[in-house]
Amino acid sequence: MNIGAPGSADQITSLLLLKEWLKMDPANDLKVSERPSYEAPELIQQGKIDAFFYTVGHPNLTIIEATAGERKVKMIALDQALIDDIVRPRPFLTATKISVNDYPDLENREDVSTIGVRPFCLPARTRMKRRSTRWYVRSWVILTFSGGSIPSLPA
Asked: Alpha-carbon distance 59 to 63, whole Å?
């Protein structure tokens, strides 16, 4: 299983999920790979890994590549109770679903329940007036967010 490059968001997230919520010891319970996630499609299609974690917006080319090979790929949905337990104390996370329509070669036939990271933007206020900053943030969120609910922004 690829858990992402050392220190990456993918690795931090995967280790947290495996250790804290699934009560697994990755060093003893799994054969772990620590490669950058963009390498995962090739690794999974070559049979060098059987699974990988990836924290990414959807649709995503890396996931499309991973599902397009001869080796069939399935996304693992998270249980709703687990999602609720993880999301509840963390306002930067949200329950979401990944649409199977984004990945025609995916083995799943139903949307996949998972956890999403809420987007945020930190524009430099020294160069933008308050009104243009609000417009920029709203536009960025609407254009880049995929899945889940968009948090309301103050006027």
From this structure: 8
